[in-house]
Write a structure and sequence with these properties.
single chain; about 290 residues; alpha/beta; Rossmann fold; 6-phosphogluconate dehydrogenase C-terminal fold; 2 domains; six-stranded parallel β-sheet; three-stranded mixed β-sheet; binds nicotinamide-adenine-dinucleotide
Length: about 290
């Protein structure tokens, strides 16, 4: 495949940025990847494992000559980092972010983007419960969706160019309205994470069952269902604070459905439970 961007700057060197770097370099889509990380430990690890071509401790230095800048920090830190790099962005550069929330990130980042620089927000629907520079792997995005939420009037050629980089690392690209994105992701990702965290919290608070029993006798249900509760606390704190309305809406609906099921169990309404599980199983079986 041919080179799409000469120099890419990755801001933050965790799971997503690391996977992007490995995938882009493996596919020969970029000439150089420069990585900025705030912590000395992350920079040392990234250098040691060759995660990027060059590591720097200065965000300004990372973005100065970059053609593509990827903001890959927790969503609550996007605005601050955008303000920091803004004076050093070159004309014609593309800035994207990989944040799990779109409206709040756009509101925080867009005001800092200078004239002549393209801001194309994005979100890869791919991840694991692991984080940090050692967690990345090149195939993370294979056959996953990667949503773009370009603002009205965005330069179509630049959107297509970014989309071709993303396709080059194995993902499928679609455009989506930012507000709709936040509602869809509240259902398919954010609320499930909150419920998984809660399930572990519940297990922790049942005094008749000790913590070591929960860990030792963790059955498939608890194991499968709570895998995502091992995810990074900073990332998820930010997601819930930044996608507040949509998550509270879906959480309200979740609580309503749960009460109905609770009542069906109490009343011995097997028909209701059976019908409900039949309908939800059909939906779940459609997900590969
Ligand atoms: P990660 O924890 O693996 O990496 C985040 C990196 O950002 C780390 O290097 C951390 O040190 C750095 N960082 C944190 N706060 C910072 C700050 N204030 N300034 C500069 N650097 C800072 O996280 P990740 O999973 O790669 O997530 C990065 C972004 O991608 C987040 O916005 C997240 O919402 C989004 N995302 C995550 C997933 C997932 O499943 N993990 C999936 C899609 C999108």
């Amino acid at each position: 495949m041919s080179v799409i961007y000469d120099r890419v700057a990755l801001i933050g060197l965790g799971l997503i940025a690391g996977s992007m770097s490995l995938a882009m370099r493996q596919a020969g889509l970029v000439r150089e990847v420069v990585g900025y990380a705030r912590s000395a430990e992350t920079r040392a690890t990234a250098a040691e494992i060759g995660l990027v071509d060059r590591v720097t401790d200065s965000a300004a230095d990372a973005v100065r000559d970059a053609d593509l800048i990827v903001l890959a920090v927790p969503v609550g830190a996007m605005g601050e980092i955008a303000a920091e790099i803004a004076p050093f962005l070159k004309k014609g550069a593309v800035v994207t972010d990989v944040g799990s929330v779109k409206q709040a990130v756009i509101e925080a980042v867009a005001p800092h983007i200078p004239e002549g620089v393209h801001f194309i927000p994005s979100h890869p629907l791919a991840g694991t419960e692991h984080s940090g520079p050692r967690s990345g792997f090149a195939s993370l995005f294979s056959n996953r969706w990667w949503l773009l939420t370009p603002p009205e009037g965005a330069d179509r050629a630049e959107v297509d160019r970014l989309a071709s980089l993303i396709r080059g690392i194995g993902a499928n690209v679609e455009d989506m309205d930012a507000a709709h994105h936040d509602t869809v992701l509240a259902v398919t990702s954010h609320t499930p994470h909150l419920i998984a965290y809660t399930m572990v919290g519940v297990a922790d608070h049942i005094k008749r069952v000790t913590e070591s029993e929960v860990i030792k006798y963790s059955a498939a249900g608890f194991r499968d269902f709570t895998r995502i509760a091992a995810s990074d606390p900073t990332m998820w704190r930010d997601v819930f604070l930044q996608n507040k309305e949509a998550v509270l809406d879906i959480l309200g609906r979740f609580a309503e459905e749960l009460f109905v099921l609770q009542r069906a169990i109490r009343m011995g309404d097997g028909q209701h439970l059976h019908d409900y599980f039949t309908r939800t199983r059909a939906i779940r079986r459609g997900i590969i």
